[in-house]
Amino acid sequence: MSSENFTIGVEEEYQIIDPVTRKLRAAQEGILPKARRALGDEVQPELYLSQIEAASPICHTLGEVREQLIRLRREVITAAEAVGSRIGAAGTHPFSHWQDQEVTPKERYLGIEAGYQQLARENVIFGCHVHIGLNDKEAALEVLNRVRVWLTPLLALAANSPFWLGDDTGYACFRTELWTRWPMAGPPHLFGSRAEYDALIRALVETGSVEDASKIYWDVRLPERVSTIEFRITDVCLTVDEAVMIAGLVRALVLTCYEQAQRNEEFPRVRQELLRAAHWRAARYGLSSELIDLNANRSRPAHEIIESFMQFVRPSLEATDDFLTISQLVEETLQHGNGAMRQYAVYQRNGQLNDVVDFVVQETARDIV
User: What is the pLDDT of residue 369?
Assistant: First the structure.
């Protein structure tokens, strides 16, 4: 196996927050130059001036992932504080309105707004993207087919967006509902071969449905420019620990599915409608109710689905010496709640969304400054 396989890269999208009003703040252009003095191109603009993205270098171990995320968050937070702003990691802001946000004045982002109109204007959301290295295109397609049925545990564990425009949405991950309105978003389809996959991408480009393959926004996709499998399904995580948990689970899932494919093992060929139903259930309830077991076509309590997921990936976690770390982080999340549950617990104390924003800012910086 090449050393380029099963590496990890993590991208996090952060909120820029006014410490007085607690609203989103269009301060990206002031923060970015300061952050780049320490991080270079590891920190990037995003669609709105109230967003900023940090991307880790290629990592080979979860220990490296943790070190890099701590470094990235610390430098972005420091740069933000230098211009009187704060940084928060949550999938949506609790009450800032999309109408108040300014698009980053760059050709790419202006083009997105021009093309997608209202969808783009309301797309004030913040995700975590995990790249796992795999330089065999055929194998990557086989993995893409197999990971589809295990995306809901990831979504539920990382759910971190319960509020939108000042309202309790009733969802653990409302970001998912905002994002899946986009035409090229949602769970990936099942493909019979890499040729079939490439033909679809080519047809989408040739029909003008997308400008290029980078505009394919599936929950898991195969990027054109890098040899990775990119998981885009989760909210940005509140804490570094949770981001490490998701990165570790994603790599273990890819490794497990890769080894299944090498052995030519059968896997569930689930219809798209059922996949979307399962993702909706996970976005709606997170860890607080039943999820859909796509391997058995029935509903089961969330903690049972998580346990089944852990059993599925355990050999891969043990092979990379990550099982104890990840199992502990998963257990802590099941005991104390995902980001959405912890945000909501703060809100229940006195119904103040300002307190939720303060909590998000605190959790984002936990153990790193």
Answer: 62
Tokens found for residue 85? 């702003």
The Cβ of residue 335 has, within 10 Å, a number of other Cβ atoms equal to 7
Closest C-alpha among 22, 185, 184 to residue 90: 22
Q: What would the pLDDT profile of 244-295 be if each residue is shown by its tens digit?
A: 999 999 999 999 999 999 999 999 999 999 999 999 999 999 999 999 999 9
Other Cβ atoms closer than 10 A to 199: 12
CA–CA gap between residue 279 and residue 308 (Å, rounded): 17
| Tens digits of residue pLDDT in 221-248 | 999 889 999 999 999 999 999 999 999 9
Distance between CA 174 and CA 309 in Å, rounded?
Answer: 23
Q: Whole-structure pTM over 0.85, yes or no? A: yes
User: Measured over all CA atoms, what is the biggest interatomic distance in the chain, rounded to whole angstroms?
Assistant: 57
pLDDT at 2 over 50: no
pLDDT of residue 103: 97
Residue 51, classified by CB atoms within 10 Å of its CB into exposed (0-12), middle (13-18) or buried (19+), is buried
In one-letter notation, the amino acid at residue 291 is L
Task: For residue range 295-350, list pLDDT tens digits in order.
Answer: 999 999 999 999 999 999 999 999 999 999 999 999 999 999 999 999 999 999 99
Q: Tokens 């109109």 belong to which residue?
A: 117
Beta strands 217-218 and 185-186 are parallel
Chain CA centroid to CA 80, Å:
22
Contact predicate 97/104, CB 8 Å: no
Residues 155/287, Cβ–Cβ less than 8 Å: no
Q: What is the CATH topology of the domain spanning 8-362?
A: Creatine Kinase; Chain A, domain 2 (3.30.590)
**What are φ and ψ of residue 119, in 5° steps?**
-60, -45
